[in-house]
Design goal:
This protein is of the alpha+beta class and about 450 residues long. The protein has two domains: about 230 residues, Up-down Bundle (Rhomboid-like fold); about 140 residues, no CATH class. The strands form two sheets. It has a ten-stranded antiparallel sheet with strand order 3-12-11-10-9-8-7-6-5-4, with helices on one face. A hairpin with a 2-residue loop joins strand 5 and strand 6. Helix 6 crosses helix 7 and helix 10 packs antiparallel against helix 11. The longest helix has 30 residues.
């Protein structure tokens, strides 16, 4: 009687807290909470439990209860589980849904629960093949939101990793510690017989699947996928002492998944507000070879520009021509003019004069082609077998530099026109694209690797 009076006395307070928790959440969160509450009452009907929860032996033919993969998450056997589910869903509506949006929240909910059921089925099938114990096929029921709660703890770790949850004499417990601690706690409670075996299975699976989705597959509004932050690696779930060996194993698994095209290589983007000097080392290229080729191209360009400057200095100044000349100067100018006319008659007008230099070196083959026309310089450098092509054009103060390297392929395009510079770097077979644009003092850099 005393317990009932206590509960009755606290009912208004519980209603107030529940309304505050769910008051500003979306209709989808409220509907899921209502369905979970209805599922709790349905769980008292034993035949309904068999048809709505995932039983590994009945999902595939001849039972073929495939719908249970979508309904098992709404069935809870204990009221405290319903309370935990409602609190978790309310926190999702307050914290995660405003950042992700309603559709992404529902996608995350559906994906995690169906994946937990799917992998849970194969986990118990593997146990059966190892032990031939039929109880793991027909007596185990996967139900509830344990896997989803685990995935939510991973999402909270991603958003607020250093937020302190509990202060203990042994130290502070932050959000980054919650997924591992709850997984270990569920396993310990199962070992001592206080928890069903389905709970640690679903929770651990939820942690792994939630991390995989948030790490590699979640699509963001800026067009990127996943979160490749260093503080969100799989090793970051474990204590610092255990991270080095776990990181080695996780990198091996990651490279294997990339090779199987299950995961993609990371996509990194940079956006800076002003001009800056940035050095980027692209994977798959030799830094020393790239520097050597760059020096060759710059040296050839410098020589041609200096020759062009000397040629321009040899022509008389317009200011000198406009000043009055003495008799001796006039005679010298007349003689010079006659010489120029003679030279022009022999080789044609100066603006049609083209200078071409071709150098070829096979095996590591380098070709340099230089052309000068109307004060325009073009330098083409080609190196095969790790092939680099550099095209430089200068026309009326406009410089265009095009660098292409195949087989680990890098393409760099630089254009300068009226103070505007654009640099485009692309690397295929990897695939990285770096785009740098400077326009009126604004620089944008974006890197993509597929």
């Amino acid at each position: 009687m005393a317990a009932l009076k206590t509960i009755h006395r606290n009912v208004p307070y519980l209603k107030q807290q529940l309304s505050a928790l769910l008051g500003n959440t979306s209709s989808s969160v409220k509907i899921v909470c209502l369905v979970v509450l209805i599922g709790y009452f349905i769980s008292y009907h034993e035949p309904a439990v068999r048809f709505l929860t995932v039983t590994p032996g009945y999902v595939f033919p001849p039972g073929f209860r495939i719908w249970t993969i979508f309904t098992h998450c709404f069935i809870e056997f204990h009221f405290w589980e319903v309370c935990v589910d409602v609190v978790t869903l309310g926190l999702c509506g307050k914290l995660i849904e405003p950042l992700w949006g309603k559709m992404e929240m529902l996608t995350f909910f559906t994906l995690i629960n169906t994946s937990v059921a799917f992998f849970g089925i194969f986990f118990y099938l593997a146990i059966y093949m190892a032990t031939f114990n039929t109880d793991v096929l027909f007596e185990v029921h996967l139900h509830g939101l344990s896997g989803y709660i685990a995935a939510v703890s991973v999402a909270v770790k991603q958003m607020m990793p250093d937020h302190v949850v509990i202060k203990t004499p042994l130290g502070k417990m932050t959000n980054r510690n919650v997924p591992l601690c709850v997984s270990l706690l569920s396993i310990i409670l199962y070992v001592v017989g206080l928890l069903e075996g389905a709970y640690p299975t679903m929770y651990t699976t939820g942690v792994v699947i939630g991390w995989l989705y948030l790490r590699f597959y979640q699509r963001h509004s800026n067009g990127t996928r996943g979160d490749m932050a260093d503080n969100f690696t799989f090793a970051s779930f474990f204590p610092t002492v255990m991270q080095p060996p776990i990181e080695i194993c996780s990198k091996f698994v990651y490279n294997l998944m990339v090779g199987l095209r299950i995961c993609r290589k990371p996509i990194r983007k940079y956006d800076v507000g002003g001009p800056t000097a940035i050095t980027i080392s692209l994977p798959g290229t030799d830094t020393h070879d790239a520097e050597r080729r760059r020096q060759i191209a710059l040296k050839a360009l410098s020589e041609r520009l200096s020759q062009q400057a000397d040629s321009a200095a040899s022509w008389p100044s317009l200011e000198e021509d406009s000043r009055p000349k003495t008799g001796v100067q006039a005679e010298q100018v007349s003689q010079s003019t006659n010489q120029v006319e003679t030279l022009t008659a022999a080789v044609g007008p100066p603006h049609h004069r083209t200078t071409g230099i071709t150098t070829e070196e096979d095996y590591g083959t380098t070709r340099i082609i230089t052309e000068e026309d109307h004060g325009t310089t073009r330098i083409n450098t080609e190196e095969d077998h790790g092939t680099t092509r550099i095209n430089t054009e200068e026309d009326h103060g406009t410089t265009r530099i095009i660098t292409e390297e195949d087989h680990g392929t890098t393409r760099i395009t630089t254009e300068e026109d009226h103070g505007t510079t654009r640099i485009i770097t692309e690397e295929d077979i990897g695939t990285t694209r770096i785009i740098i644009e400077e326009d009126h003092g604004t620089t944008r850099i974006s890197t993509e690797e597929r």
